[in-house]
Amino acid sequence: MVIIDSKTEEYIYDSAKQTHGVLKTTVVSELISQLNCDKEQLQQALLPIAAKFAQAPISSFYVGAVVFDKITDSMYLGANLEFKRQALSLVVHAEQAAINNAWINGAQEITSIAINAAPCGFCRQFMNELNSAGTLSILLPNGRFTLNELLPCDFGPSDLGNGASLMSNVASDVDINLPISEALKQHLRQAYVPYTSNLSAAELVLKDGRAFYGRYAENAAYSPSLSPMSSVLSQLALSGIKLEDACVERITLVEKAGFENQKSVAQAVLTNLKGTVPLEHHVF
């Protein structure tokens, strides 16, 4: 078992806040050399750091997850995010957060995910939407498992006639004639929405100018789908900012006309932010 000393742990945590929980290939290589370990051992050693990003005002149960993408050769942290005074179904699970973080930041094929607690059925189903679901390794405190071992007799995209998958990164070429940022337009085009066709994404801009993005990621089982607003708030949390402390300048949600289904859930989770920030809602 690889142990990261407190000084190095604090350094990694501070660095991860700047990159929103992304550890690029150079950092991964340096840590592997410094700790004399392999990639999977490093993933597990990073779990306490990932869990530091958790915001769990309801459960006080702090979960961390770390995924590795073989195409970018990078690691992506994730942590659970709970919303006070809102339905438990709106919670972002650590596994969702890590996968969303990888997806938002250009990952293409996740080969392994380390978690500091066994994944719930909801998260197993969420992982089943990945393009690498058939080969994904799940690293737990008590061993290494395949997703098939943890989710036998599964229900997945193919059962609904969907030949696509999360992380396939096939962008829509739709024209978007709206007064929104080019970055938001790009995230909108990359939303994964094979079941409702509601291309949807969100942008959150802080008063200091920092911008965060989220996309809609649907799931064959429907309920485990990740909303664009939960996606962007998870990204905010991975910068080390508590929701109630965020100084937000602007929040924008964009959806496909005729398929809208995200405004009400977005307004629900936004009640956890500091003050009152009007939601800019656009359809195209």
From TrEMBL:
Zn(2+) binds at residues 93, 120, 123. Keywords: Hydrolase, Metal-binding, Zinc. Signal peptide: none annotated. GO terms for molecular function: cytidine deaminase activity; identical protein binding; zinc ion binding. Binds 1 zinc ion. Residues 38-158, 175-284 form the CMP/dCMP-type deaminase domain. The keyword Chloroplast does not apply. One of its GO terms (cellular component) is cytosol. Pfam families: dCMP_cyt_deam_1, dCMP_cyt_deam_2. Substrate binds at residues 80-82. Its cofactor is Zn(2+). The keyword Zinc applies. InterPro entries: APOBEC/CMP_deaminase_Zn-bd (IPR016192), CMP_dCMP_dom (IPR002125), Cyd/dCyd_deaminase_Zn-bd (IPR013171), Cyt/Deoxycyt_deaminase (IPR050202), Cytidine_deaminase-like (IPR016193). GO terms for biological process: nucleobase-containing small molecule metabolic process; pyrimidine-containing compound metabolic process. CDD domains: cytidine_deaminase. The active site is at residue 95. Homodimer. This is Cytidine deaminase. Belongs to the cytidine and deoxycytidylate deaminase family. The lineage of its organism: Bacteria, Pseudomonadati, Pseudomonadota, Gammaproteobacteria, Alteromonadales.
